[in-house]
Amino acid sequence: MQRLARGGVVFLILLLPATASAQASITGTVRDGSGAVLPGVTVEAASPALIEKVRTVVTDGTGQYRIENLRPGTYAVAFTLAGFSTVQRADIELAGSFTATVNADMRLGSIEETITVTGESPIVDVQNVTQQRVVDHEVIAALPTGRSDRALGALVPGVVGGQDGGVPGAQGGLSIHGSGAGTIMQSGVAITQGFGTNGSNNSLPNMAAFQEVTFDTSAGSAEMAVGGVRISFTPRDGGNTFNGTVFTHLANHSMQGSNYSDELRNAGLRAPSTLRRMWEVNPGFGGPIKRDRLWFYASYRYYMNALSPSGAVFNLNANRPDVWTYAPDPGDRRPSNDSTFKDFTVRFMWQATPRNKIAVTWTEQPQCFCLETISATVTPDASVRRAYTIRNVIADWMSPVTNRVLLEAAAIPYRYQRVTRRLSEFTNPAMVSVVDQGLGNLVYRAPQGTNNAPSPFRDTEYITSFYRAAASYITGSHAFKAGFNFGTQADPTTNFPATQPYNFRFNNGVPNQITLSATPSAVEFNADADLGVYAQDKWTIARLALSYGLRYDHFKASYPAQTLGPGPLVPTRNITLPKTDGVSWHDLSYRTGAVYDLTGDGKTALKVTLNKYLSGQGDGGPFGLALAPANLVVQTTTRNWTDANGNFVPDCDLSNPALQDTRAAGGDLCGAFASPTFGLPARGSTYDPDTLTGWGKRGFDWEFSTGVQRELFARTSLSAGYFRRWFGNFIITDNRAVTAADYTQFSLMAPGTDPRLPTAGTVITGLYNLVPSAFGRPSDNYVTFAKNYGRQIQHWNGFDVSLTARPAAGIMLQGGVSTGRTSTDNCNVAARVPGVLQAGTVWTPLQFCHQDADFATQVKWAGTYTVPRLDVLISAVVQSLPGPVILANYVAPNAVVAPSLGRSLSGNAQNITVGLVSPGTISGKQSNIVDLRLGKILRAGRYRASLNLDVYNVFNNNTPTALNNTFGGGTPWQAPQAIPLARFAKVSAQIDF
Questions:
Q1: What is the pLDDT of residue 8?
Q2: If you classify domain 131-235 with CATH, what class do you get?
């Protein structure tokens, strides 16, 4: 019995409430005819959006009231007090977390007398500092976009990320104002793969299951640890009336034109982006199971597409182990990345008592990237197939205990599995993967792994649980919230052997390096605790609304015991690694903001915020899987290779770490292992204990913003703001086996007279190469704070101007301009640890250690217009986006380096890759895209149907969106690697009832 009681207590603690995401509010002040405030006024907000129909509060001693946690919809507000006439205000529109200020003036009279006050719904939020964009079901149905959070978020000025218009996507996250990825949430809990704060999600949302999507882009609350773009999905709940929606669309290659010009062909683009096929069906339906008590909503999405990426062609020499050259197929045959997404979601809502609502949402998502990673730099024979299985169950509960106390809770078990395998048509085990520096780092022949994933073939599973809970105490002048969120995760990954346990690097077809991998291997990351406890308040003092909050975070990780067994290149390996603790961090972060009603009429808001956020921590970065004991053992290494006999076979013992020179006998020169501890029990990296435990050790960023929002006229507002973000707790890796004195500094002349290269013909200084005696020393990589070596900065500064207008029914316009730039500096650190200037294979010269990128400017507009009486819908999306950042990575051979270096490159290296321009200072042309929709609306009773013709990239823009950054190779510098999809049409239909 005692166990049962303890279990019940734990269950109740888990169900302590938290503020749900994207919930709106109504607030205001009630006065009498003399202007004196009126306490004790009963205020009722009524809406069909509320299952309980009406939410009631009472004004406090200052005459103020606040009604929190309101679902999106249209509300009517009534004010009653004995001895006064009732005042009513209708048509208050709420979306996202918007706070509508609705004041009332009550006059003496009979309570039976009702005064109806007319006026436009407030459009300026004079209470909240959070900057957000809400995309509701109506807008999603009207705009010509891909139906995904990435495609919709890409319409927000300042947001970076998203997909081509009309093509839903499920890869990558969104960022804004220099931030990292934020969070993706439903019912206030994270629905991301990996851990809940890493902002990544490979799923494609089932849009029929949601009423609206909210994008918080600045001044987030204390409810989550990270900043950036916070995406919140508001689910549909069914209701007492049967309702539903069905959406479907279709497009194929015959509905597409061409934007492949002779200019692009001559510049080096082998083929344009091509739509093969794309279709979708997305129905949703819900209603009462028992009226006023139990409701359901069920939906299904089946979507597939096949797209041939720009520059991607078949390799005629695929599956030919005796042929090492890349031969692009000149014919019309094109490879495509093929994706299939399915989603079934069902939600049940139960009004258990008048003050207790419980909802459960179940989602199953089998997905297949059946062909993935094909691009201008990855051939089909080097691509992979990924299958994803996602399941989540969200339970949430809400209880307005009194008209001042609100309780909420939610929990989610989330399971995500990813299986990566080779394509069935490219399985010849004799094929060795090749990356060619001179061909723009083209990967061909077979898939290739990375340093953190030594094999491209692996199984990964994320088993995550996430809970949130909080209580709100709401008076007229205060809205106080306190709560917590807590999560755990297990993340086992198994790396399977590639076709071969090594891959080659060529330069214009000539071998120069071998990368060796110690597969198979397995690694696991466990997030034992991601705890956040917060308290925040909103205090309204006359025309000033203050927001302030404090958040405590504790993140703890560990790694279970593991064994690394033998592999093709490590036949005797048998390493047992005990269970190990990872990081254990404690942090405090702050949320502060103020809104001032400048004109006192709720039409002009002056806002200022200062907030500290923590970096998202999942299994990525230096403190995720990289910290696992299995990954601290060196699992990959390189050795330089001179293929003297030209047979493309390393004539040496690859498992022998020493230099081997058999050229005199007709063999090759195989340099020593770059990491001589490859495959051995010795650790290749250790961590500074100060980075792993304690207070204030986690990466963070501060965000400052200030701006003004003004209602220009009814239902139209203009916003302008300045934003600044700066980061801290940078991490570097210092190989303590060498010092700055073990590097030879040299310079070289930037080649050529290309007028596009600002450094052409000038001397590039501050390049480094290890002295020969230091090359091959056992590494002693020490992961620590950059501040231990000097000052390092990363800042973003910029401005946004945006307009939101819904001046009349059937008319909507929103968009604006965003511009900003990033500045970085690691000069002090690089002077002491030159190795930080190397990212991958590219060395950034010391002269570029301080970087001020050019301003990147976006212009984005979206609008809809329904022609009266004709019921014809016209909508458009217009975007002008910055061109790609251009680099000039020069593969400098020994013959160019040796005169300044005074010797050949150490380790028998044949070349070194040098950046010839400061990153971010050269960009491609701005890309301008216009998408258009023409639709006919049909109505019959409760039914509304829209038949649409969408045209994407109306003006057939073909401005390159990716360029070759290798300078002086076999592929021309700045040769286009990707362009937008050519103009194509898509037919779609939607029925709502």
A1: 39
A2: mainly beta
Contacts of 63 (CB under 8 A, 6+ apart): 29, 30, 31, 36, 37, 38, 39, 41, 476
Which phi-psi region, left, alpha or beta, contains residue 482 (left: φ > 0; alpha: ψ -120 to 50)?
Answer: beta
Tell which wins on pLDDT, 23 or 516.
516
Using CB atoms within 10 Å of the CB of residue 615, give its burial: 0 to 12 exposed, 13 to 18 middle, 19+ buried.
buried
Contact 204, 148 (CB under 8 A): yes
H or E element that contains 654: none
Digit-coded pLDDT (tens) for 334-383: 999 999 999 999 999 999 998 899 999 999 999 998 888 899 999 999 99
Calpha distance 113→532 (Å, rounded): 50
Contact of 73 with 87, CB cutoff 8 Å: no
11-117: what fold? Immunoglobulin-like (2.60.40)
What residues form DSSP beta bridges with 137?
A: none
Token pair of 845, please?
A: 């010269």
- Taking only Cα atoms into account, the Rg of the chain, rounded to an integer number of angstroms, comes to 30
CA dihedral over 906, 909, 913, 914, signed as positive or negative: positive
Q: Is a pLDDT exceeding 80 seen at residue 29?
A: yes
Please choose, from the candidates 316, 368, 315, 377, the residue with its C-alpha nearest in 3D space to the C-alpha of residue 337: 368
The token pair at 825 is 């500096």
Query: Are the CB atoms for 158 and 879 separated by under 8 Å?
Result: no
Instruction: Please provide residue 742's backbone torsions phi and psi, each rounded to the nearest 5 degrees.
Output: -90, 5
| Strands of 643-715, DSSP E | 660-661, 669-670, 685-687, 693-695, 700-713
At 888-943, the pLDDT tens digits run 999 999 999 999 999 999 999 999 999 999 999 999 999 999 999 999 999 999 99
Nearest Cα to Cα of residue 709 among 98, 72, 74, 73: 98
Enumerate the CATH 2.170.130.10 domain ranges in the chain, comma separated.
Answer: 131-235
Span(s) in the chain for CATH 2.60.40.1120: 11-117
Q: At 134, which amino acid appears?
A: V
| Cβ atoms < 10 Å from Cβ of 162 | 23
Identity of the residue numbered 51 = I
In whole angstroms, what is the distance from residue 973 CA to residue 530 CA?
46
SS (H, E, C) 868-901: CCCCEEEEEEEEEECCCECCCEEEEEHHHHHHHH
CA 414/CA 47 separation, integer angstroms:
33
Residue range 727-769, pLDDT digits in tens? 999 999 999 999 999 999 999 999 987 899 999 999 999 999 9
Count Cβ atoms within 10 A of the Cβ of residue 499 and give its class: 0-12 exposed, 13-18 middle, 19 or more buried: buried
User: Angle at Cα 616 formed by Cα 619 and Cα 473, nearest 5°?
Assistant: 130
In angstroms, the CA 904 to CA 268 distance is 33
Contact 229, 216 (CB under 8 A): yes
Q: 925-952 burial, b if ≥16 CB within 10 A, otherwise e? A: eebebbbbbebebeeeeeebbbebebbb
Three-class DSSP labels, 54-117: EEEEECCCCCEEEEEEECCEEEEEEEECCCECEEEEEEEEECCCCEEECCEECCECCCCCEEEE
Tokens 């450094």 sit on residue: 759
Q: Which residues contact 138 (CB under 8 A, 6 or more apart)?
A: none
